[in-house]
From TrEMBL:
Pfam families: HATPase_c. Residues 211-456 form the Histidine kinase domain. The keyword Plastid does not apply. GO terms for molecular function: ATP binding. This is histidine kinase. PANTHER family: HISTIDINE KINASE, SENSOR HISTIDINE KINASE. It comes from Pseudomonas canadensis. It catalyses: ATP + protein L-histidine = ADP + protein N-phospho-L-histidine. Its EC number is 2.7.13.3. InterPro entries: CheY-like_superfamily, HATPase_C_sf, HATPase_dom, His_kinase_dom, HisK_dim/P_dom, HisK_dim/P_sf, Sig_transdc_His_kin-like_C. CDD domains: HATPase_AtoS-like (cd16943), HisKA (cd00082).
Length: 459
């Protein structure tokens, strides 16, 4: 912003003698006597003489030529501060037209219009040029000092306007930068807040889960073991009942035998014998589910004392997990694998398997009546590996999307989903300092992407 003041002037007039006059007025030859100057500075030190401002005057003898000079000057980034323009130039453009053209190229150019007569009324001219603040009128014959003062004042005015405009631009840039920085801060904060909310939910759920799991574990344990015992006992009872039934006809007296038979039919003993094992089986399955939920809950809240961080092969983990869930997938989807070569990653391998299992089972559960495809891809991206589980199932509605990582959020029927799969997975991925994200389109399918650092530096 500390450029030297602009003292470049343009004179457009078709009368050559006017140019000589202007030159004399604005560019007086300063008499210099080098010998005298040298003596002066030897006597008084290096003194800076106050000099009259030096103008650089360029001449054009018609409007078109003037415009050409201006265009060239602008291209060279050496703009004029001020133009003196003759009003009446019969050969080409008149002053008004010339000024219009000049301002198209350099709107900030200060202009003095010089004239002896007036072809326009000044009001009309000012009106036509829309420029009360850039245009002055100099009537011929003019006074030398008047020309000098105009040149000085208007060149200074041009400089000030340029400085103001540069400052405004600079300020606007600063405001723009600051606004951007603030916006980024706001976005970042929102992101952190939502993460905080998520991790708070997880933490409080974790405490709850640890307590509940602990309380439930014991009764579940003895119910489960009692059911097994009960099943065994019932088998024995059944053998005994069968034996009794075979002996039924031999019982004497015959009325007693009839009585036994009537009782057997009344109690629907055959049905009971069939139904009791089914009830026991269902109860055992139910209890098995409870055991699984408790296990999930414990996993969820676990501080992970038993597990250790180690370098493991993610692909092996995926494959063994796929084996475990094979029966769940069998009738629902084909699995396609696109594995990229992966380095071993530092992780809690069994927990990552659990993430994969949740994602794959969710994908299978998202299939409609038709058989679908689950595509599992992996790859490396600088310091991270990534894993994607994509399905062509029914997709997730946009308004549901932000809730799917919430603990206990499920859209599945009671008994089928607990809504813990994804929140568990989220917790596990975060523990690995990784990231899990989802993109989905209703009716098209869903893709989950997990990104995990290869190393847990300073973890
Ligand atoms: N691949 C998917 N396609 C469609 N919806 C999905 C998919 N994965 C998750 N969802 C939606 O997100 C919800 C939450 O998933 P999450 O795995 O946490 O629980 P869940 O599958 O319902 O129950 P759980 O996993 O505990 O058995 C699901 O109920 C379902 O609505
Ligand atoms: Mg699930």
């Amino acid at each position: 912003m500390n450029q030297s003041p602009n003292r470049r002037l343009l004179l457009i007039d078709d009368t050559p003698s006017i140019h000589d006059d202007f030159r004399k007025i604005l560019m007086p030859v300063v008499e210099t006597n080098q010998a005298l100057d040298a003596m002066e500075s030897a006597l008084f030190g290096d003194t800076t003489k106050a000099r009259a401002p030096v103008f650089e005057l360029h001449s054009a003898y018609g409007g078109e030529e003037g415009l050409q000079l201006l265009v060239t000057a602008m291209e060279r980034k050496q703009p004029y501060a001020l133009a003196f323009v003759d009003m009446r130039m019969p050969q080409g453009w008149d002053g008004a037209k010339t000024i219009e053209e000049l301002w198209k190229v350099a709107p900030d150019l200060q202009v003095v219009i010089c004239t002896a007569y007036s072809d326009y009324s000044w009001e009309d001219l000012l009106e036509r040029l829309h420029a009360h603040d850039r245009l002055l009128i100099l009537k011929k014959p003019f006074d030398n000092i008047e020309v000098q003062q105009m040149a000085n004042t208007l060149a200074n005015k041009w400089d000030m306007a340029r400085r103001a405009s540069l400052q405004t631009t600079h300020l606007e840039q600063l405001v723009e930068q600051r606004t951007q920085a603030l916006q980024m801060e706001i976005d970042e904060r929102k992101h952190l807040e939502s993460q905080l909310v998520q991790s708070e939910k997880l933490a409080s759920l974790g405490q709850l889960a640890a307590g509940v799991a602990h309380e439930i574990n014991n009764p579940v344990g003895f119910i489960s073991s009692n059911l097994s015992t009960l099943e065994g006992y019932f088998n024995q009872l059944q053998q005994m009942l069968d034996a009794y039934q075979r002996a039924e006809a031999l019982v004497t007296p015959p009325e007693q035998s009839e009585q036994l038979k009537a009782m057997r039919l009344g109690l629907e003993l055959d049905f009971l014998k069939e139904d009791i094992p089914v009830l026991i089986k269902e109860s055992r399955e139910g209890i098995g589910r409870v055991v699984q939920i408790v296990k999930d809950l414990k996993n969820f809240s676990r501080v992970d004392n038993e597990q250790t961080w180690q370098f493991a092969n993610l692909q092996q983990g995926i494959d063994s997990t796929l084996n475990i869930v094979a029966s769940e997938l069998k009738y629902k989807a084909d699995v396609v694998k696109h594995y990229g070569a992966l380095p071993e990653i530092e992780c809690l391998a069994s927990q990552l398997n659990q993430v994969v299992m949740n994602l794959v089972i969710n994908a299978a559960q998202a299939m409609g009546p038709e058989r679908g495809t689950i595509t599992i891809s992996t790859g490396v991206d600088s310091e991270n590996v990534w894993l994607e589980v994509a399905d062509n199932g029914y997709g997730i509605a946009p308004q549901t999307l932000q809730k799917i990582f919430d603990p206990f959020f499920t859209t599945k029927p009671v008994g089928e989903g607990t809504g813990l799969g994804l929140s568990l997975s989220y917790g596990i991925v975060k523990k690995h300092r990784g990231d899990i994200s989802v993109s989905s389109e209703l009716g098209k399918g869903t893709t989950f992407r997990v990104v995990l650092p290869i190393r847990q530096t300073a973890a």
